[in-house]
Structures are given as C-alpha cells and as structure tokens.
Amino acid sequence: MSDRPVILVAQPHLGLILPLLRERYDVLALWEEEDRRRLAEATAIVMAGEFALPADLLDRMPKLPRRPARPDAEAGPDRLLHGRL
Q1: Whole-angstrom Cα distance, residue 28 to residue 42?
Q2: Structural domain tally of the chain?
Q3: Tens digit of pLDDT for each residue in 15-66?
C-alpha cells in the first residue's frame, strides 16, 4: 500500500466503482480480501446503508473514525457515521 488513504468497499454490488476509487485511494474489497488483518488499515468504508456490518468486523478496524450518526445519539457500533471521501 502507498501513503494514500485506505478505504474498504463492503459489498460486491459496489464493485463497479472500484476502478474510480482506485484512482485516488488504496482500496480493499471485503469480498476479495483473504487477509482480514489488512482491514486494520482502512480509514473509511464505502457501503450501501441498508446493509449492516458485524460489530466484530468493525472492531478490527481501529483507524476507522467513529462518531454518532446524529449529534444527540450515543456512539456505538450500530450508529456509526463514517467520514466522507
């Protein structure tokens, strides 16, 4: 990997945008990633909002910013808002 931001694309149906993302970011595709330890490098997730990621998967991503989705909400794995790309 380079010094560019590392992002994780979480669902295969978003695979069509991989070439566009790879122009600016180092991209991990969750469905292709055999070494799950590499997820720790990701600083953002690209995903369709109607699909949830398991909390144990998110726990393996310490560089991922975590903050409440709403200002009045409690932060937690089910209420994450990830940074814009």
Answers
A1: 8
A2: 1
A3: 999 999 999 999 999 999 888 889 999 998 998 877 788 888 888 888 987 7
Would you state the structure tokens that stand for residue 35, as one six-digit string?
């070494």
Quick one: 61 exposed, middle or buried, by C-beta within 10 A (0-12, 13-18, 19+)? buried
Look-up of token digits 């292709």: 32
Q: Is the pTM of this model over 0.85?
A: no
User: Which tokens sit at 21?
Assistant: 């993302």
As a whole number, mean pLDDT of residues 62-72 equals 67
Q: 81 is in which domain, residue-wise? A: 1-85
Supply the CATH number for residue 81's domain. 3.40.50.720
Instruction: Name the burial class of residue 45, with classes exposed (0-12), middle (13-18) and buried (19+) by CB atoms within 10 angstroms of its CB.
Output: buried
